[in-house]
From TrEMBL:
<dbReference type="InterPro" id="IPR027417">
    <property type="entry name" value="P-loop_NTPase"/>
</dbReference>
<feature type="domain" description="CobQ/CobB/MinD/ParA nucleotide binding">
    <location>
        <begin position="8"/>
        <end position="219"/>
    </location>
</feature>
<dbReference type="InterPro" id="IPR050678">
    <property type="entry name" value="DNA_Partitioning_ATPase"/>
</dbReference>
<dbReference type="Pfam" id="PF01656">
    <property type="entry name" value="CbiA"/>
</dbReference>
<dbReference type="InterPro" id="IPR002586">
    <property type="entry name" value="CobQ/CobB/MinD/ParA_Nub-bd_dom"/>
</dbReference>
<protein>
    <submittedName>
        <fullName>Conjugal transfer protein TraA</fullName>
    </submittedName>
</protein>
Amino acid sequence: MEKETLFIAFSTQKGGVGKTAFTVLMSSYLHYVKGLEIAVVDCDYPQHSIAEMRQRDMEQVMKDNYYKQLAYRQFSTIKRKAYPVEKSMPEDAIDVAENLIDGATIQPDIIFFDLPGTLNSRGVVKTLGGMDYIFSPVSADRVVMESTLKFATMLNENLISVGKSDIKGLYLIWNMVDGREKNELYDVYENVIGELGLNILKTFVPDTKRFRRELTSGHKPVFRSTLFPAHNSLLKGSNLIALADEILKTIKQ
């Protein structure tokens, strides 16, 4: 029996809360470290941030012997090519994903979708309805919280609970948490989230500048890249591994 490819989106209608960063970090960690077959459909029109990042990563590797050797050692060790990143319009994203599956030598375990940060973009709601799982980053900021809860409640009431989608689960993720520990404010918000019938993962992601560290000519350890996983020296305190483990448990991978 052929395995099922899961369609997953880190999605919200509020910009700047980490949906693209989570897509890249999870894709690279699961593909290069955990050994899952990953693909990405970048339908965040018009910026296509992940496709642009892949282009920057490739250019940096090709012109810099340090990164070129790093890429060669990685390929020699894990015997895995870079995961594909395909650009798409939001309304065409499912078709692009299906074509990726049909044309793949090894069927992907997961295809991640990076969608526009607004439900008003053409095709976004339809594509979200085709996801197996949706993870929505949220921070303890009133504007972000209200926007994310509105987004999640709309999907839950209009798609999930009435059976008008393929969505098996919708989960919020605490992102940009200030300090090492959550405080009482988060308990209040989590009570509100529970009362709305929504779910939130236990793992929280701290507010740290390392999430913006990409490939540079300075050869510093990289955290966010489409060609390499987050460097081991930067993982401590990021909760990235714990988040990946909880997501894998949630989607039963």
